[in-house]
């Protein structure tokens, strides 16, 4: 009876080892599947993040272009509007003559002498 009990105990132990081995394999399979799923999810999430980043980059580029175009249009409009309020600049080149309106006879000699002076010299004489 001890031999039969020992044999039976051995069978139970072998069954337990076999079941534990199957359980270990199942756990390994589940961990492998979970790891694979996590990697797939990570790759999918990474691809989605890359696509979202590209999309945001395109939107920023489009917005920047639109802002530059608007800035250019505003500048042109401002210049156009300002052109209505600016006076035309007319340059006159030449020297202005100082007219001698002195009619007294006592200064005739000084008037004759000043006639040959330049405009700058005349203004000096007048200021003295």
Automatic annotation (TrEMBL):
This is Perilipin-3-like. Residues 97-108 have a biased composition (Acidic residues). Residues 90-128 are annotated as: Disordered.
């Amino acid at each position: 009876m001890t031999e039969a009990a020992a044999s039976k105990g051995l069978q139970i132990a072998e069954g337990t080892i076999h079941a534990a081995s199957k359980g270990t394999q199942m756990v390994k399979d589940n961990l492998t599947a979970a790891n694979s799923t996590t990697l797939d999810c990570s790759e999918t999430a990474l691809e989605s993040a890359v696509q979202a980043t590209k999309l945001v980059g395109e939107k920023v580029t489009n917005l920047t272009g639109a802002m530059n175009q608007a800035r250019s249009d505003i500048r042109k409009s401002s210049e156009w509007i300002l052109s209505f309020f600016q006076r035309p600049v007319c340059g006159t080149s030449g020297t202005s003559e100082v007219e001698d309106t002195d009619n007294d006879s006592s200064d005739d000699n000084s008037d004759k002498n000043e006639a040959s002076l330049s405009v700058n010299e005349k203004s000096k004489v007048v200021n003295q």
